[in-house]
């Protein structure tokens, strides 16, 4: 079963997936083993992920491991239609296309939610929430969650006592957030901004809202391209860290008056309000790198504007009552996936290696309590070791003396 935009795009999508596989050798090593062992044989997986060429490499890996896979997109604008077509041709049950409206988006998620899965694989928490609300099945062994936003939602479910199955927070793996969130989003968000606008970064004042791992990545790379970077934060610890790393830190209300480009990265709502937007320079650019399109008050901006027109793909001009113009990219959705291709394959290699191994771990450990778990250390380390190996990099090993020394408490100075 499938519902995609154009199945005739499958050949083109297969070439895209082939390119990703060439740059995701960690996951390909895992696929090689799983194809022989079939650890997921007979397992039905419901997945809501960004339908990109990198996700396709994961889906093929799970399929080769024996799983029956159902996939929907985790963002209405992030699906790569040629890749979706190729997956459908490969035997993956995929329901995704770029440009879904809100009803189509949730209908697709509902399609994969109601198959009575054994494993639930999500990016953002929409699938987990829908299954808990309407489609829970006792057949569910457990699930995984790819991103910070989804983990926050799942922790809230756990704390409220409503979580019905164990979930591994893939996002919390060192080999995920230290690389995907920082290096992946740091590069791909800028890629999306450049594709949408073709502006020069050097010399611009860039305001990054949030200094988590995503914000750190974007701020450092913007600075590397010659921007003057301002960070806005609500956490005193993260704000202090940004200051110590050489960034200007100030409230968004002050930064809104001097920024040229604004990028939200917090996972929270109305981080940039209409009042903030009214203070911006004529020609200010607004982009979001958080999971949902709630960080910029898009609806408030639409209500307040005198006129809206599309200037170029993924760039809409809003004429404000004061005569100034601001430019919203990708309708406030994830700019790296809506206006570009998402993270580079090399960094998704790490994230999706964690996904594949976490799925295998849940199937092999069926007595986990209903809680949110971090990726086991042995999986995190295995992913790092595999990545180093395929990169041709060797590291030192502790001697027996060093191992014993690291476990003792008697030696002093």
Automatic annotation (TrEMBL):
Pfam families: AdoHcyase, AdoHcyase_NAD. Substrate binds at residues 52, 123, 146, 176, 180. One of its GO terms (molecular function) is adenosylhomocysteinase activity. It is found in: Cytoplasm. Keywords: Cytoplasm, Hydrolase, NAD, One-carbon metabolism. One of its GO terms (cellular component) is cytosol. The keyword Signal does not apply. Pathway: Amino-acid biosynthesis; L-homocysteine biosynthesis; L-homocysteine from S-adenosyl-L-homocysteine: step 1/1. It is an enzyme of class 3 (hydrolase). It comes from the Archaea. It catalyses: S-adenosyl-L-homocysteine + H2O = L-homocysteine + adenosine. PROSITE patterns: ADOHCYASE_1, ADOHCYASE_2. This is Adenosylhomocysteinase. It comes from Sulfuracidifex tepidarius. The lineage of its organism: Archaea, Thermoproteota, Thermoprotei, Sulfolobales, Sulfolobaceae. The gene is ahcY.
């Amino acid at each position: 079963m499938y519902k995609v935009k154009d199945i005739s795009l499958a050949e083109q999508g297969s070439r895209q997936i082939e390119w990703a596989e060439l740059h995701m050798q960690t996951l390909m090593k895992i696929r090689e083993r799983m194809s022989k062992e079939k650890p997921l044989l007979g397992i039905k997986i419901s997945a809501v992920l960004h339908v990109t060429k990198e996700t396709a490499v994961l889906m093929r890996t799970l399929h080769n491991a024996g799983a029956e896979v159902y996939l929907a997109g985790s963002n209405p604008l992030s699906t790569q239609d040629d890749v979706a077509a190729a997956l459908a041709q490969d035997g993956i049950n995929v329901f995704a296309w770029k440009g879904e409206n809100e009803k189509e988006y949730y209908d697709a998620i509902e399609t994969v939610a109601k198959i009575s899965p054994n494993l639930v694989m999500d990016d953002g928490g929409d699938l987990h929430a829908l299954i808990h609300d309407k489609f829970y099945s006792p057949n569910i062994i457990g699930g995984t969650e790819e991103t910070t936003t989804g983990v926050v939602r799942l922790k809230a479910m756990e704390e409220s006592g409503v979580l019905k199955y164990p979930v591994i927070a893939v996002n919390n793996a060192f080999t995920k957030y230290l690389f995907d969130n920082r290096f992946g989003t740091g590069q791909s968000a800028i890629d999306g901004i450049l594709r949408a606008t073709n502006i020069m970064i050097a010399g611009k004042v860039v305001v990054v809202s949030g200094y988590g791992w995503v914000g750190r990545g974007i701020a450092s790379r913007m600075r590397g391209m010659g921007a003057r970077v301002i960070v806005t934060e609500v956490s005193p610890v993260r704000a202090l860290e940004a200051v110590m790393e050489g960034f200007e830190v100030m409230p968004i209300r002050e930064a809104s008056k001097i920024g040229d480009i604004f990028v939200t990265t917090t996972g929270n709502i109305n981080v940039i309000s209409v009042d903030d937007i009214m203070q911006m320079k004529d020609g200010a650019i607004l982009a979001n790198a958080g999971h949902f399109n709630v960080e910029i008050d898009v609806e408030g901006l639409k209500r307040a504007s005198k006129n809206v027109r599309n200037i170029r793909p993924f760039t809409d001009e809003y004429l404000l009552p004061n005569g100034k113009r601001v430019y919203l990219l990708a309708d406030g959705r994830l700019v790296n996936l809506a206006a570009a291709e998402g993270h580079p394959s090399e960094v998704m290699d790490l994230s999706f290696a964690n996904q594949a191994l976490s799925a295998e771990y849940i199937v092999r450990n069926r007595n986990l309590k209903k809680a949110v778990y971090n990726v086991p250390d042995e999986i995190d380390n295995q992913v790092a070791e595999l990545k180093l190996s395929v990169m041709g990099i060797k590291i030192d090993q502790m001697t027996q003396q060093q191992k014993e020394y690291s476990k003792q408490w008697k030696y002093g100075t």
